[in-house]
Amino acid sequence: MSDGEDHETADADRGDAAADADGGDETVVRRDRFAGGPARSFLSSLSDDERIFAADLAVDRAHVVMLAEQEIIDRETAGEVLAALADVEDAGHGALPDGEDVHEAIESAVIDRVGQSGGKMHTARSRNDEVAACIRYRLRADILDLMETVIGAREQLIEVARAERETVMPGYTHLQPAQPTTVAHWVLSYEQALQRDTARLLDAYKRVNQNPLGSAAFAGTPFDVDRERTAALLGFEGVAENSMDASATRDFLVETTSAVATLATTLSGLAEDVVVMASKGHVDLDDDYASTSSIMPQKKNPDTLELVRGRTGDAVAGLNGLLTNLKGQPRAYNRDLQRAGRHAWDAIDSVTESVEVAAGAVATADWPAETLVAAATDGFATATGVADLLAMAGVPFRTAHEVVAEAAAGLAADEDAPDYAALSAVAEDVLGEPLSAYVDRDALVAALDPAESVAMRDSRGGPDPDAVVEQVSVAEDALAADSEALTARRQAVSQAADRRQTEVDRYV
Fold first, then answer.
1. Taking Cα atoms as reference points, which of 258, 273, 263, 222 lies closest to residue 243?
2. Same domain, 352 and 253
3. How far apart are CA 451 and CA 491, in angstroms?
4. What is the pLDDT, as a whole number, of residue 5?
5. Is the peptide bond before 332 cis (omega within 30 degrees of 0)?
6. Where is this region: Disordered (predicted)?
């Protein structure tokens, strides 16, 4: 997405020198002196710019309509240019003439069709504010698509939580058995993280969706442009105020890519959990999300989740690449920026696919209840529940912790938890009284059961099935609100496109 050092003109004179040039000049918007040479292909971003081809056409149309409305160019010229842009769109990106970038190539294609007066489409703007507008226009569409994908993933995870709210599973810290929880509680922990990822994307969208057009190269323009009008025609929510900042900044790319990298990190954690669970037989992935070995036919590998984990590196590298590109660039425009956008595009494309795959793998997986509940007793995972019972009976928690820790230390290698007698003996030693003086035997035996241990944890946000029901309700409300926000932004963009087309039709 090359901008170069661009020039503004009020009329078709900007094309005269190029039109009179002879020999290998393949563009009508560059002077002959800069038309060829061994660095032309090095300078060109035309092939990469296919991503913003449609965005450039939209930006061109909005700009030309505004120029005509402001009587900066006449209606006839506006109509000719807008008709030529329709032809260029129909022909597609592949039919564009050679050029440094898509902006130059589209303008050249228009001039090829209508003559030198086609150069008036570039009046009162630079490729600097033009490309900034195109990037923002396309990026907001990518953000909305990614948001839609994340919202869909959250919906799938909520469905799993509904179905598995009583499916007990082992919970881990430091990859060691810690406390029993449920599949629903685990999956909702990632749904909540995805809520925040959605909020970050939505927040970034506000700063992306600002109009830089009218800033020109960086110092504004002497023409009586209406920046609010082009903002309305393009569906931007406001105007990027300072012309130098509007043309030069790419911090909106950084913010978006950072949100994408954070989302990728969320997905990587989920993928790692599932890979570890699969290795223990705690989850059975659907065959659509697994593969087998080329030499060991008995294996079922969680390859898709490993790739989700691996693609996190793509997003983090994209953020680092973008920050490195922007570091130290002076105001206002520098050609380095031609390489900035690709980092964001690559990260978004990679992570959007990862969202779909990760959510699909979890949604279609089988959770073997008997295996999971058996594993939930490993390593005396119910120990905290016993300590909590003693603390609720008035024993200081640190003393209760000591009782349970001493009981755990006395376990044989083949034991997962002490029995009542062992706990009572330790309590007599530490507390000076039998366990029955503090805790009912049946209550303590129940606390050693993983399902009962889960049921004890009925605090807000806990794994108790009733607490999970409340969490699902809260998650559904957040999902509905984010879905409405997404729909509202899509409608605003669509309505702007309709307004733009209506105005174009007045001239063509």
1. 222
2. yes
3. 47
4. 46
5. yes
6. 1-31
Instruction: Name, in order, each residue with C-beta under 8 angstroms of 347's C-beta and a sequence gap of 6 or more.
Output: 257, 260, 261, 264, 314, 315, 318, 319
pLDDT in tens, 254-297: 999 999 999 999 999 999 999 999 999 999 999 999 876 666 66
The token pair at 9 is 């003109």
- Domain of residue 360, CATH code: 1.20.200.10
According to the model, what pLDDT value does residue 379 have?
83
Q: Which residues are catalytic?
A: 174, 293
213 shares a domain with 332: yes
Question: pLDDT value at position 462?
Answer: 96
Q: Which amino acid is at 275?
A: V
Residues 254 and 329 in one domain: yes
Instruction: Tell me what pLDDT residue 473 has.
Output: 97
Would you state the pLDDT for residue 477? 98
Q: What are the helix (H) ranges across 393-461?
A: 397-409, 420-431, 441-447, 450-456
* List of the chain residues with pLDDT < 70: 1-48, 292-299
What is the pLDDT at residue 11?
A: 38
CA 390 – CA 439 distance, rounded (Å)? 7
Backbone angles phi, psi at 216, to 5 degrees: 60, -145
pTM of structure:
0.88
Render 40-76 in DSSP notation, one character per residue.
HHHH--TTGGGGGHHHHHHHHHHHHHHHHHTTSS-HH
Element of type H or E holding 143: helix 127-163
- Quote the domain boundaries for residue 348: 128-166+180-222+234-366+475-505
Look at residue 21 in the predicted model and tell me its pLDDT. Answer: 32
Closest CA to 447 of 179, 176, 182: 179
Are residues 343 and 196 part of one domain?
yes
Tell me, yes or no, whether 196 and 296 share the same domain: yes
